[in-house]
Design brief:
CATH topology: Rossmann fold
Mean pLDDT: 97
Radius of gyration: 16 Å
Shape: globular
Largest sheet: 7 strands, mixed
Structural class: alpha/beta
Number of domains: 1
CATH class: Alpha Beta
Number of strands: 7
Helix content: 25-40%
Number of helices: 9
Strand content: 15-25%
Low-confidence stretches: none
Order of helices and strands: EHHHHHEHEEHEHEHE
């Protein structure tokens, strides 16, 4: 058995979930600016996440789900996951985004498990608070080590794919490190760089 860990936003999905949510409130420009700074490593991920989610306060959970269930998946996402599983990979998603999106995508794209964050709500409306598995810059690295131990999978048998600064921590624990349409800060940590929005290109490096 081998392990493949994908980031979700701007990797398996073409865009940033939180930007789509913010657009519903007319705040896409403001939130997108913070997202870009976080993904480029210019500001702390935890601070950027909590700040952006606070701006979503008042958005109805039903609208969140509607948006998250209609996100555009990256070209080749489903096909690539299918091929990886045929090659005996456990395929997992680590996302600094939200379970509303990743758990739905799990059934659509066919990966095995998702670890992401939860948007807190009261009476069907977002409170502006967030918690979960992927809150910090180090979260993905911490989680991949625990998964490798649980599944008895080595660094040599691990593939990771991401695009932003918060993916660096998991890149340290994989043999194949794919920077997919990535920020420069992550490309420096990668040994495979793909600048075309086609996830099937990953299969060429196996």
């Amino acid at each position: 058995m081998k392990l493949c860990v994908f980031d979700f936003d701007s990797t398996l999905m073409d865009g940033e979930t939180i930007d789509f949510l913010a657009d519903e409130l007319g705040l896409k420009k403001e939130v997108s600016k913070i997202t870009k700074e976080a993904m480029s490593g210019k500001i702390d991920f935890f601070e950027s996440l909590t700040k952006r989610v606070s701006l979503l306060k008042g958005l109805e959970v039903s609208k969140v789900d509607e948006i998250c269930h209609n996100l555009p998946y990256m070209t080749g996402a489903k096909e690539t996951i299918y091929e990886l599983k045929k090659q005996n990979y456990k395929v997992v998603v680590f996302s600094g985004g939200f379970r509303n999106a990743t758990s739905y995508a799990k059934d659509k794209l066919g990966f095995d498990a998702d670890f992401s964050n939860i948007l807190h709500s009261n009476n069907g409306v977002l409170s502006g608070l967030v918690g979960g598995d992927m809150m910090f810059d180090f979260s993905k690295g911490d989680m991949i080590l625990r998964l490798q131990e649980l599944l008895n999978i080595s660094k040599e048998d691990t593939l990771v794919v991401g695009d932003g600064a918060n993916d660096r921590s998991m890149f340290a624990h994989a043999k194949i490190k794919v920077a997919f349409c990535a920020k420069d800060i992550l490309k420096k940590e990668a040994n495979v760089i793909i600048d075309t929005k086609d996830l099937t290109r990953i299969l060429e490096c196996l």
